[in-house]
Automatic annotation (TrEMBL):
Residues 23-190 form the N-acetyltransferase domain. It comes from Didymodactylos carnosus. GO terms for molecular function: acyltransferase activity, transferring groups other than amino-acyl groups. This is N-acetyltransferase domain-containing protein. InterPro entries: Acyl_CoA_acyltransferase, GNAT_dom. SUPFAM superfamilies: Acyl-CoA N-acyltransferases (Nat).
Length: 218
């Protein structure tokens, strides 16, 4: 990108509406990798998420069409300020009666993780623009073969994009304990497809299985 965040305008110099007009969303390319690392590291104030993304790129299930960047452009200024990644996952099904693992799973799923924005650009609508663009792109392309997207995030933020509580409404659980189950959410890309799959298989519940890279980076 070639420009540091110190070159970016301050809050007093640019309103949110003006800033968002200068944000372009596009697919990530290999030339973005070093800037994406810095955005993730800065956004999370640690390098766990940055290292996770680098590891996921080495996974054979990584699809470059599922990662997106937000670019701030204004005249000669050009800076990568945001990043979003979807990654294929599966939902393993279990019997509610005895918690037995079944020979059934939902494989056409994605996890949204991570999404990041440079600290000085946060709360300016960039994350929402990233998500909206990415979802529209998925729904317009071959990526529509995916049935749903899982995210662990703010219960009052993601519902604006159509996400719903995964545990209470779909009986889909994370593979770890969480304090607030309403923060574990799912978006059906094909209306009612996931709900039909869960109900069709009877008295079952699902547990999300993330790639091993999620456990390796902590």
């Amino acid at each position: 990108m070639g420009k540091s965040s110190s070159c970016s305008p301050s809050y007093s110099e640019m309103t949110q509406s003006n800033l968002i007009d200068h944000i372009q969303i596009r697919g990530e390319v290999s030339a973005d990798y070093s800037d994406v690392y810095e955005v993730n590291k800065s956004a999370f104030e640690q390098d766990n998420e940055a290292r996770l993304v680098e590891k996921l790129r080495q996974n054979h299930n990584f699809d470059p069409n599922l990662s997106y960047v937000a670019i701030y452009e204004n005249g000669t200024q050009r800076l990568l300020v945001g990043y979003l990644l979807f990654f294929p996952i599966k939902i393993q099904l279990y019997s509610k009666n005895d918690n037995k693992k079944l020979d059934l799973s939902v494989n056409e799923c994605l996890a949204l993780a991570p999404i990041s924005v440079l600290p000085s650009y946060q709360n300016r609508g960039i994350g929402s623009k990233l998500i909206s663009y990415a979802l529209d792109n998925i729904k317009r392309s071959y990526l529509m073969s995916y049935h749903c997207i899982i995210v662990l995030g703010h219960e009052n933020y993601y519902p604006r994009f159509g996400f719903k509580p995964a545990i209470s409404q779909y009986h889909i659980h994370p593979p770890f304990s969480i304090e607030n189950e309403n923060c574990f959410l799912v978006l059906e890309l094909i209306p009612d497809k996931l709900k039909e799959t869960m109900s069709h298989n009877g008295n079952v519940y699902g547990v999300v299985e993330y790639p091993k890279e999620f456990d390796e980076v902590s």
